[in-house]
Structures are given as structure tokens and as C-alpha cells.
Amino acid sequence: MDVIRSIFQFILDMGASVFVPLILLVMGLIVRMKFKDAFTSALTLGVAFVGMNIVVGFMMNSIGPAAQQFVKNTGIQLNVIDGGWTSMATLAWAWPLAFLMFPFQIGVNLLMLLTKQTDTLNVDLWNVWGKIFTAVLVIGVTGSPTAAFAVAIIQMFIELKIADVNQKQIERLTNIPGVTTTHSMNIIAVILYPINRLMDYIPGLNKRIDANWLKGKIGVFAENHVMGFMIAILLGIFAKYSVQETLILGVQGGTALTLFPMVAKLFMQALAPISDATSEFMKKHSRGRNFYIGLDWPILAGCNEIWVTTILLVPITLVLAVILPGNNILPFAGIINLSIAVPALLVTGGNLLRMVILGTLATPIFLYAATEFAPTITQLAVDTKALEIPSGQMLSWSTIEYPVFRYIFAHAANIINGEFTGFIAAIIWLGLFAWYIKGMRARTKAFEEEEKAA
User: Model pTM?
Assistant: First the structure.
């Protein structure tokens, strides 16, 4: 058992920038790519991951201090520390049974492929930690490892079904054929979808407003570097920065929004050859069945709408954290809420105005879920001794991914201890999930008809 655990830990220690390209190199060779072509594509993907991490880190290091200063100016003190996703991943891997989630994820994916329940091959195995974290939260509520693995398996099934129906939307947004994203953050789209449909009937919100629309209306002010500069300047003013500090922050914001699409092009450069080769191979060996490669969310990072939304949500999130009754978490490490921006991008098709509205409406859900799970997460840190928590404080994650699913299904699993409300909520959630799948399939069909007409 220790040997198996050590093997998985060795793989994980390489990180996504090495692990995922290695998998794609093997895939490329299997589908008969020349070694030099497969190696070049895989290495370019590794470069893309590292480049995106650098740019995201740069932006967070720029925006984070401004957000912290904003909160300091309010004088508010909240007793739950925001540890961000890195702290949660550390706690997830501290669970003794964590390494077993690897074979479960691979097994579920292969079974669904063989039974034609999915067309997505999930190579984003590094993010298996998200399922582990879900399992840990379920144990915190139910005390049952069996229930924990059951909910994690349900999550694996759901993320693959969502990856299937999102594929065409992702292809249109990225111009990368044959890929989708299997990141579980997209599960919250199930909750966002009904709100987005409602906005179809609201005057002013039933128009497409994206980065290109803004460029057509306000010209140079919608260019990436100018837009990033202006938004960062506003944040600097909110933080009461000096003129010098505000201007520096503005240039940093403009730099980040300029670099994101540049780095995103590397994903296209890396994935297009492997996607084409895989498609040809599958057509020859699977009677024309299409397969998609499931990857991490950064393949969407070239969409400016994501970054404009996340930056605009920073002051909104901080204000809500201050004024919402019952919220106990101070957003900091998770202040750049990709957990809402990425699924909102897919649900709205890149409608910037709707993305900001959805983000504003969903932010209280994230804050309350983080507050609710804080005792469980804190106890886990104490039990595993993986992280030290200051006396009188608790630990959580202000932008905890897919909070509704995790909360509902953790309590649904608690039916083993006589709790029924969570089970009823889970049935309602599954109904919304079915609606989302149906709606996105209809959108895919509409896209395909547009392509045929063109």
C-alpha cells in the first residue's frame, strides 16, 4: 500500500505542467503521430501550462494586496482564514485513502467510454484532488468513507456528462477542435443555467455583450491592455492606494490582460495536432465515433471575458463579505474567483454583462458555503496536522469550487444517519442537472446547424 501511495505521490509532485503533457505524448504515439510531432505538441502544452501559471500568479500577486488593503480600510475582522485552493489540495492529499481516487477516476471514465455514456477521455488526472476534497467534506458530514467515495464517483459521472455537452461551446470559444474541459468547477453551471435562461426574457440582457461588442462600441477603451489598466486603476482607488501605487497597479492589470490571450494561443498550437491525429485514429478504429480530450480549464484562458469578470468581482466580493450577515470568511487567497467566471463563460457563451451578474448573484453562495464548511476543514487540518491554524481562527476557501453540489450531496449522503433534507435537495439538483444537459445539447445542435448553413 505504501509503495502504491509513493508512486502516485511521485506522479503528483511533477505537477500538471509535466504530468498532463506526458499523458498527451503517450496518446500522440498511440494515435500514430511521429515522435517529434507528438513531443513538440506535448512540450508546447507544458510551456502553455507554466506560462499561464506565471501570468495568473502575476495577476493574483498584483490584485491580492490591493484587495487586502481594501478590507483593511473597512476595519472588519472575520475569524475564518481564506486558504485558497492550494491549502485545500494540501488537506485533500493528507487523507490516508486519497491515492485510491486515481484508479476510481480512471475506471469510471473507461467504463463510461465503453458503455457510450461519454465521449470524453479525461486526461486531467492531476485535478483528481477535487474529488478527494469532496470525499473529505462528505466524511466531515457523514463520518463514512463509503459515502465519501460514492459521492466522488457521482461527481466523476457528472463532470464527464457536462464536459460532453460543453464541448461545442468550448470549441467555438477557443477555436481548438476536439477538446473540452473536465474541470469540476463547471458543475456550478447547473445552478447558473436557469438564471441565464431567465435573463433571455429581460430587456437589455437578451443581447450579446462580449469583449468584441465592447470594442465595437467604445473602441480603444475595450482593448485588452486599456481595459485591464482601467479596471486595475479603479481597484487601486478602492484600496486607497497612492497615485504612484495606483498607476503601477494599472500597468500590471493591463499587462495581465495583454498576456493572457498570448499564452492561450500556445494551447491551440499544442492541442490542435494531437486533436486532429486522435480524431483520424478514432474514425478508423471506432466506426466514426467522435472522442474529445478532457483538459484543465486554462484552455479557456484566452477568453478576455473571464479576466474582466474576475477583476470586476473583486470589489463586489469584498463588499458582500463585509455586509452579508452570517458570513465569517475574509476573502483573500481565493479572491480571483475563477470558480464562477469559467462556468459563467460557458453558460452565457461569453456574454460579459451576464457573467458579471451571475458572479454577483452567486458570490453569497460561495461565501456562505465557505463559512459552513469551515469547522469541517479546520478539524481536518487539526487531525492531519497538514496545516497550522492560529488559535481562535478557522480555515476555509472563499471561492470553494461548486459549493452547491458539495453541500447538497454531502448532506444527501448523510441519509445514512437519518438526515433526509439533503437527499430531497439532491433530487431537485439532479432535475436541474438534466435540464442543463438538455439545454446544452440543444445549443450544440443549433451550432451544428449554423455550421452546415455556412
Answer: 0.80
